[in-house]
Amino acid sequence: MLELKGLSYQVEDNGGQTDILRGIDLTIPDNKFVVITGPNGGGKTTLAKAIMGLVRSTGGQIFWNGTDITDLSITDRAKLGISYGFQQPPRFKGLRVRDLLELASGNKKLTRDECCSYLNRVGLCAADYVDREVDASLSGGEVKRIEIATILARPGGLLIFDEPEAGIDLWSFAKLTETFRVLHGKGENTIIVISHQERIIDLADEIVMISGGKVVRQGPKEEIMPHILADTGGMCSFLQPNTDSCRQPKEG
């Protein structure tokens, strides 16, 4: 179970302080699929990074399965089974896709079939990618899917994905949503996805809406979705439908 108690994050800004996260209290039970959504700039990505340890909270506590991880390093959190997928994944010149998958799996030697299985689950033709370097020759969408494959290869209990739909085509997006559906169906992981995409939100057990650094709504999808649609009616919504007609800039 993931528990956030009074989680805060402040940054220095022009001689003052800006509150990015404002005392967030949040509990996510084991094996739930939770989508965190809300307006751009509301603090969603910062919250995800704070859970992973990519930014250090300036107040409050984070508990994972009863252990206080607030002051743990990224490495120590990863050892506890917490994984994170970036909006813009890094590239690793000189490392093959196979190498990344083996590192993610805990340095165990993976068979070619095992590597191919992870790649196929994110919509990549494995034979074309397993021995390629993760360098500038790959598109942003390809790198994104490879990163998600490495998360699938890593034994873990908490999987965090920051806008996984960013930069991938519609066919790959369909494969991605099916991957999430299968993952959740196995009941082995807690999944947190930062997303504006209706098709991803539709997979959720619960929706958490973040705005102004606070949780403004939380509950079952059937309860929260009507509020989101009402809140965004009559304007270009942060909520993205199943088309590319209204793209929004990435959250900072």
3D structure, described in words:
The chain starts with a strand and ends in a 21-residue tail after the last helix. It has a domain at 86-150. It has 9 helices and 12 strands. The strands form 3 sheets. The protein has a 6-stranded mixed sheet with strand order 6-9-10-3-11-12, with helices on both faces. The chain has a 4-stranded antiparallel sheet with strand order 2-1-4-5, with helices on one face. A two-stranded antiparallel ribbon has the order 7-8. The relative contact order is 0.18. The chain is α/β, with parallel strands linked by helices. Helix 3 runs parallel beside helix 6 (140-153) and helix 4 packs across helix 6 (140-153). The protein is globular and about 50 Å long. A hairpin with a 2-residue loop joins strand 4 and strand 5 (67-68). The chain has helices at residues 44-52, 74-79, 97-104, 112-121, 126-129, 140-153, 170-186, 198-201, 221-231, and strands at residues 2-13, 16-28, 33-37, 59-64, 67-68, 82-85, 92-96, 133-134, 158-162, 190-194, 206-211, 214-220. The longest helix is centred in the C-terminal third of the chain and has 17 residues, at 170-186.
